[in-house]
Q: What sequence folds into this?
C-alpha cells in the first residue's frame, strides 16, 4: 500500500511556487507498538499554513524541510497495533498532514461522532476555524448583546462563523468580504446586517456609511489596509481581536503595521492576539454548542471541497486569491 | 494689569514654526460673578500639546485658532468675585493655558498643598505626567512583583516615574533613553536595572542583551522603531501600554504603524491605549501615595525649568529634540 504525500522541500519567499512542495509516493512503514494507521479523507487548507513555513519564532515550530506538509485532517482508523484508545473504523480528527495515510501514537487525535456532522464540517465549523471563531468572539472579544461587531474575511471559514455567533448573541454585524457573491452570501444566507465589498468599495467610505456609530469589536483576519480602516472606526473601550493577517502573509519585506494604532489611545481600546490552541481543553464544550446551533439551523456551514492530493498547491493558492466559497478543503482519499 | 498670552494662530503641518503661535499682550477683563483670577507661576510643557493642535477626532477637542494655547499650569488665586470654593492665596493646579493670568469659574481647578511639594512638582510628578505613569503602570499594565518592565522615554516626565513605580513594586526595569547622560541618570539616580541608549546602540541588539528573557510589560511613550523592536521581545501574555508616540507626532504623512504587531498573536499579548483623564476621580489617592514615596525618598522627581513666556516655542521644541532633563516646565511669572 502506497502513500501519496506532499513533502515540504523549500521555504518560500513570498508566494509558494513549484519548488516549495513535492509530491512523493512512499510505502507505508509497519506500525510500532501502540500506533494506529489513519486513512485520511479530507485535509484542511488554512491561511495559517503560510506562517508555518517561515523559519521564525512563532506559536508553533516551523514545518521541517523534507517532512510532510503540516495540516489538520480527518479520516478513519484502518489499522491498530494495540492502542487501547482507538478502534478500527473510528473517525478521527488530527494533525495528519497533507498525505493519504497518517501514522500516529494517538496524540492530538480526537474521535468525532460521524452521526453528529459530516466529515468536512468536522474540519471546518466544528474544527479549527470554528473553534477559532467561537473562542475569539466569545472569550477574547467577550461580546455583549447590542455590540456592533465588524469582521473581515467575513465569507471565510473563521469570519463566517464569527459573524453568525455574534448574531446569535444579539449583536449588529457588519462583514467585509471580496466580491458581490460573497457579500450577498453573508447577508442573504448568513443573516449579517451589512456587507462591505472591499474589492469594489472604498473601505473608509463604506465603513462611514455602514457603521456610522463605529464598532465595539473588530475581528481581524486580514491585516493591512482593512485593519487600518477599522481602527479609525473604534468606539470607546472597543476590542480588536488579532486572529490573522492574510493580506500580509506573502510579503517579502516587512509587513505593513497599522498606522492608525493610536486610535487605541484615543478610544481607550484594546488589541489582543489569539491562538486557538490555547482553548483545546474546551473544544468539546464548544463543539457541542456549535453542533446544536447547526442542528437548529442557527449556524450555517459551507465547505468548498476540491479533489486530489495532486491539486494541493492549486487549492492552497485559492486561500490567497480568494477564489473559494467557505472553508477550503482538499479530498485526498481516492 | 496686562496679560502676556501665547495665542494659537495656525495649525502646524509637521513641526510648529514661527507662524504657529503669536505672543500677545492683552488687558485682563473684569471678573464675572463666581470667577477667580489666577496668577500663573509655571506652565507644563507636554508632548500631548502637539496632538491638541491637530484638527482631528481625538480624546479632547483641538485647540481653537485664535485662542490661548492649551496647557496645564499652576499658580495662585489673586482675585475672587464671590466663588465660595477658593480663597485669595490658594495654590491652584488647572488648565490655565500658556498665559500669565487665567480667569476661571473654578471648573478643573484643584487646590494643592504647597507644604506637601514644590509648585513644579505639582505639575510634574504629582501632576498629569505623574498621574499618567501611576495609572498606566498600576492599572493599565497591572504589574506584578517579578515582572520584567521595559519603558521608553525613560528619562522623561512619564517614563521616569513609570520605571520608579515598577521598581517600588518589585519589577525588573529596563529603560530606553537618548544619550549617555540620561542613561546614567536612570541607572544611578533612579535605580533602573538596565538602560538602553537608542542614540548610540542598535535597539534590537541592545534588547537582546539587556532583556534576554523578553518583557512582560512594555510602556510606550515614543512609537516608531522602538515600539516595533519592543514588540519583538514580548513574553507570553504580555501587555503593551500605548501612552504616547512622540517620535510620530510631527509626521506630515501617515504615522508608521508597528510592523511587528503580529507578535501580539504569537505571544497572546494585549496592547491597550490609555488617557489619563479617565482616572481623574482617583488623582487625590494617587497624589497621596506618590507624595509619601517622594518624602520617603523612594521616588525622585526632576524638573527642567526654563524662564519667560517669550521663550515658549523654544522650550516646547526641547520636547522633540530631547534637549531637556526631566519634566519640562516654563516659568511665566515675572
A:
Amino acid at each position: 500500500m502506497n502513500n501519496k504525500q506532499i513533502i515540504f522541500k523549500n521555504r518560500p519567499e513570498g508566494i509558494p511556487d513549484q519548488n516549495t512542495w513535492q509530491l512523493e509516493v512512499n510505502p507505508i512503514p509497519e506500525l510500532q507498538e501502540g500506533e494506529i494507521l489513519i486513512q485520511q479523507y479530507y485535509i484542511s487548507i488554512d491561511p495559517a499554513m503560510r506562517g508555518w513555513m517561515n523559519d521564525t519564532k512563532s506559536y508553533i515550530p516551523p514545518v521541517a524541510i523534507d517532512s510532510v506538509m503540516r495540516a489538520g485532517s480527518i479520516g478513519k482508523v484502518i489499522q491498530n497495533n494495540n492502542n487501547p484508545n482507538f478502534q478500527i473504523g473510528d473517525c478521527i480528527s488530527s494533525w495528519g498532514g497533507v498525505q493519504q495515510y497518517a501514522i500516529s501514537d494517538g496524540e492530538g487525535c480526537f474521535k468525532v461522532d460521524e452521526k453528529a456532522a459530516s466529515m468536512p464540517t468536522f474540519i471546518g465549523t466544528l474544527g479549527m476555524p470554528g473553534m477559532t471563531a467561537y473562542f475569539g468572539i466569545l472569550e477574547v472579544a467577550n461580546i455583549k448583546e447590542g455590540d456592533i461587531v465588524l469582521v473581515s474575511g467575513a465569507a471565510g471559514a473563521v469570519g463566517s462563523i464569527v459573524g453568525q455567533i455574534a448574531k446569535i448573541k444579539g449583536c449588529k454585524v457588519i462583514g467585509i468580504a471580496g466580491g458581490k457573491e460573497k457579500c450577498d452570501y453573508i447577508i442573504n444566507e448568513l443573516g449579517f446586517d451589512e456587507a462591505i465589498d472591499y474589492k469594489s468599495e472604498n473601505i473608509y467610505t463604506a465603513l462611514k456609511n455602514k457603521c456610522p456609530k463605529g464598532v465595539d469589536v473588530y475581528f481581524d483576519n486580514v491585516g493591512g489596509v482593512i485593519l487600518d480602516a477599522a481602527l479609525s472606526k473604534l468606539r470607546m473601550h472597543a476590542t480588536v481581536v488579532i486572529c490573522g493577517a492574510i493580506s500580509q502573509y506573502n510579503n517579502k519585506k516587512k509587513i505593513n503595521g497599522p498606522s492608525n494604532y493610536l486610535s487605541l489611545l484615543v478610544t481607550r481600546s484594546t488589541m489582543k492576539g489569539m491562538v486557538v490552541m490555547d482553548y483545546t481543553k474546551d473544544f468539546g464544550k464548544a463543539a457541542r454548542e456549535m453542533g446544536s446551533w447547526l442542528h437548529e439551523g442557527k449556524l450555517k456551514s459551507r465547505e468548498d471541497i476540491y479533489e486530489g492530493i495532486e491539486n494541493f498547491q492549486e487549492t492552497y493558492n485559492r486561500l490567497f486569491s480568494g477564489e473559494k466559497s467557505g472553508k477550503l478543503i482538499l479530498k485526498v482519499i481516492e
Observations:
- The interface with chain A takes residues 57-59, 223, 228, 242-245, 248, 254-275, 278 of chain B (CB under 8 Å).
- Residues 239 and 270 of chain B are 5 Å apart (CA to CA).
- Residues 128-277 of chain B form a domain with the Rossmann fold fold (CATH 3.40.50.720).
- The longest strand of chain B covers residues 36-44.
